[in-house]
Design a protein that fits this description.
CATH class: Alpha Beta
Largest sheet: 8 strands, parallel, barrel
Number of helices: 11
CATH architecture: Alpha-Beta Barrel
Order of helices and strands: EEEHEHEEEHEHEHEHEHEEHHEHH
CATH superfamily: NADP-dependent oxidoreductase domain
Strand content: 15-25%
CATH topology: TIM Barrel
Shape: globular
Strand order of the largest sheet: 3-4-5-8-9-10-11-14
């Protein structure tokens, strides 16, 4: 059981995020401005104080809508994180981790979010599907351009905290070793179905880096279960993933625990993880996830999952 509105520190900064964060990726793809504002109001009324967006999401519309929805809220009572380096404003993926590119992105985010400073800026999706020399070149660009630019903005007070947002924990680990980061957003990288990131999480505890786990349902299957058409990391689940999910579901049934409750609470059990960030389409989904986080789960369930080698 976790209190979803409990505030946890972000690294060694003064920022504090609620245990449940509201993600702006899927949120802004299918509902209009008024519905977004109403949903943000609902989250605020329930005590949630962490909202996450990106320059990439909805071709920049996500930042604009969050900026409008939160404009009248007390500035120091919530955390609004965004991401820079990857955009898709004309149907084309663009990656720019140069110093000038990041500074331009931050300037645009400040305007769209209606802020004079940004709480958290993540270097976004540095290496999706890259290997070898291409990976090395992009990592070097990010560390030579994006990182020092954001570090300077942090020193000057324009940005409170900096981090990296990506789904690959090994990439996060490399950045953690190369620079002084406050937090990491690990998308789908520490869940009931994927736990090889534990050494990275343990290292984050030693370094004083907070981890925000996005996509704790692995984009679907840990919310729906191993049903026909279940999706894992945006693709149809493989037979192996379906079988692993069925084993998890069997353990949950033995303990009368809903699979989504176990999936949502699992990442928070690691001391490095400050929050889980989830996209919501409706107030009902928000309330459902609040209830899932508050559900009592016996320690025996976690022990049985570990025995089945499906949970750390």
């Amino acid at each position: 059981m976790f209190d979803p509105v409990e505030r946890r520190p972000v690294g060694r900064t003064t920022l504090r995020v609620s245990r449940l964060g509201i993600g702006g990726g899927s949120l802004f793809s299918s509902i209009g401005d008024a519905a977004v504002a109403a949903l943000v109001d609902h989250c605020w009324d329930r005590g949630l104080r962490h909202f996450d967006t990106a320059a990439l999401y909805a071709a920049g519309v996500s930042e604009t809508r969050f900026g409008n929805a939160l404009a009248d809220r007390p500035r120091d009572e919530h955390v609004l994180s965004t991401k820079a380096g990857r955009t898709n404003e004309d149907g084309q993926n663009r990656f720019d981790y140069s110093r000038d590119g990041i500074l331009r992105s931050v300037e645009r985010s400040l305007a769209k979010l209606k802020r004079d400073r940004l709480d958290i800026v993540f270097i976004h999706d540095v290496t999706p599907d890259l290997h070898g020399d291409a990976y090395e070149a992009r990592f070097a660009e990010a560390m030579d351009g994006a990182y020092p630019a954001l570090a300077e903005l942090r020193s000057s007070g324009v940005v409170d905290a900096i981090g990296v947002g990506v789904g690959n924990w090994q990439v996060c680990q490399r950045f953690a070793e190369a620079g002084a980061f406050d937090c990491m957003m690990l998308a789908g990288g520490y869940t009931l179905l994927k736990q090889d990131s534990v050494p990275f999480l343990d290292d984050c505890v030693r370094r004083g880096i907070s981890v925000l786990v996005a996509a704790p349902f692995n984009t679907g299957i840990l919310a729906t279960g191993a049903v026909e058409g279940a999706r894992y990391h945006y693709k149809p689940a493989t037979p192996e993933v379906l079988e692993q999910t069925r084993r998890i579901e069997a353990v949950c049934r033995r303990h009368d625990v809903a699979l989504p409750a176990a999936a949502l609470q699992f990442p928070l059990r690691h001391p490095a993880v400050a929050s889980v960030v989830v996209g919501h389409q409706s107030a009902e989904e928000v309330d459902r996830n609040l209830a899932l986080l508050r559900q009592d789960i016996p320690e025996a369930l976690w022990a049985d999952l570990a025995a089945e080698r499906v949970a750390a």
